């Protein structure tokens, strides 16, 4: 049976309105985003064209306007224990930054060990902690969950947006939990602000070393040490070329992700990372702390410390259909997937694509290369 087709003509005014709507919905991105390469030797070349300094993006309309304003107005505060800077402690320097800060404020920290419990509160955005790579300062404290509660036990708490750390050692010096002391877990840092980045930093602790709490975060060339759940929280983070070092010979768990609602956009994505440590085949890459925990390992070297199961549902099989533990093109003795738990997702080329550029964390709108401080 033949049917007549009805043609609808869109008025010119409506077409113009539609085009304007589309232009508003589609972001303008000037930076040329390309996928993270599979070859480790090409990674630095990729970074040099995908993670640019502000000087190369000052007129880029894709950058957050408030970030552009802040980066055009840079303030440097020197912290030196010998008295040659404006302050002798990091706490004093942070306290000097006004609430409602609108300038990129670089706290340039001299060499040394700073035993302080530091908080950068949410009203102080655009703060950078900067150290010299040849003599990195250590920010350390010995807070525990027993004394402060888990989330407030961190030596350094970053609640503000647009935080950056470069060449800094973050440590919680509390002793390793022995299974007998209640509340012995101890964070080195808690990151609760959005759009935070960390370059060439070390995070030292045992249980709960790094609370990747919430927001979009980026880590490159870092080292994270711990024993149990030493990266945990509900952030959405890209870890690039970072070493995850399991310290306990008896093994443990690297990540404990807390996503539990389908509409929440969060996850931990480890790309070109290294899993190392002294144990043998007894460390899980992640566990289902919450029902929709989301963690991926891509292009990474998984050492012999990795348990052949790969992942743990934390003894709750009802979560097996909702958790997302993915792997793609990893290498090393711990990368063999033949004995992986059944809920492991072995990603196809197409499924891996969303995890392979900086817009996994909306990076084109805020991610910048570390500054050159002189």
TrEMBL record:
One Pfam family this sequence matches? Pectinesterase
InterPro entries in the record: Pectin_lyas_fold, Pectin_lyase_fold/virulence, Pectinesterase_Asp_AS, Pectinesterase_cat
Q: What is its main location?
A: secreted
Question: Boundaries of each Pectinesterase catalytic domain copy?
Answer: 78-363
Q: Which residues cross the membrane?
A: none
**Could you say which EC number(s) this protein's record lists?**
3.1.1.11
Please give the PROSITE patterns that the UniProt record associates with this protein: PECTINESTERASE_2
Q: In which pathway does it act?
A: Glycan metabolism; pectin degradation; 2-dehydro-3-deoxy-D-gluconate from pectin: step 1/5
Annotated localization: Secreted, Cell wall
Note whether Secreted occurs among the keywords: yes
Q: Please list the residues that make up the active site.
A: 229
* Alphabetical UniProt keywords: Aspartyl esterase, Cell wall, Hydrolase, Secreted, Signal
Q: Give the enzyme class.
A: hydrolase
Question: Is Glycoprotein a UniProt keyword of this protein?
Answer: no
Reaction(s) the record says it catalyses: [(1->4)-alpha-D-galacturonosyl methyl ester](n) + n H2O = [(1->4)-alpha-D-galacturonosyl](n) + n methanol + n H(+)
* Gene Ontology MF annotations: pectinesterase activity
Instruction: Tell me one GO biological process term.
Output: cell wall modification
Task: Indicate the secretion signal residues.
Answer: 1-30
Q: Which family does it belong to?
A: Belongs to the pectinesterase family.
Query: What protein name applies here?
Result: Pectinesterase
Which organism was this protein described from? Macleaya cordata (Five-seeded plume-poppy)
């Amino acid at each position: 049976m033949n049917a007549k087709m009805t043609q609808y003509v869109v008025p010119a005014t409506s077409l113009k309105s539609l085009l304007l709507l589309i232009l508003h919905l589609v972001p303008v991105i000037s930076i040329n985003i390309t996928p993270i390469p599979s070859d480790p030797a090409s990674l630095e070349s990729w970074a040099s064209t995908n993670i640019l300094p502000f000087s190369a993006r000052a007129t880029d309309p894709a950058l957050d306007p408030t970030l552009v304003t802040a980066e055009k107005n840079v303030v440097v505060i020197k912290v030196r224990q010998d008295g040659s800077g404006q302050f002798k402690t990091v706490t004093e320097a942070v306290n000097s930054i006004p609430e409602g800060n609108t300038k990129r404020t670089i706290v340039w920290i001299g060499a040394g060990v700073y035993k302080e419990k530091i908080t950068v509160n949410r009203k102080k955005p655009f703060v950078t902690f900067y150290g010299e790579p040849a003599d990195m300062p250590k920010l350390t404290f010995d807070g525990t969950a027993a004394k402060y509660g888990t989330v407030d036990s961190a030596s350094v708490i970053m609640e503000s947006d647009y935080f950056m750390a470069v060449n800094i050692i973050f440590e919680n010096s509390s002793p390793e939990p022995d299974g007998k002391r209640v509340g012995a877990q101890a964070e080195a840092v808690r990151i609760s602000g959005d759009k935070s980045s960390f370059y060439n930093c070390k995070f030292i602790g045992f249980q709960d070393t790094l609370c990747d709490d919430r927001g979009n975060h980026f880590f490159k060339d870092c080292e994270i040490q711990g024993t149990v759940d030493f990266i945990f929280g509900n952030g959405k983070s890209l870890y690039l070329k970072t070493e995850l070092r399991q310290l306990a010979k008896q093994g443990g768990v690297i990540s404990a992700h807390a996503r539990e609602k389908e509409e929440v956009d969060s996850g931990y994505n480890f790309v070109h990372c290294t899993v190392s440590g002294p144990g043998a085949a007894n460390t899980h890459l992640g566990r289902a702390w919450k029902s929709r925990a989301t963690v991926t390992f891509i292009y990474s070297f998984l050492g012999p410390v990795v348990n052949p199961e790969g992942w743990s549902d934390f003894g709750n099989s009802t979560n097996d259909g909702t958790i997302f533990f993915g792997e793609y093109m990893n290498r090393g003795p711990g990368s063999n997937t033949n004995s992986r738990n059944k809920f492991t997702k072995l990603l196809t080329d197409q499924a891996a694509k969303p995890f392979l550029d900086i817009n996994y964390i909306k990076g084109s709108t805020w991610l910048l290369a570390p500054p050159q401080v002189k």
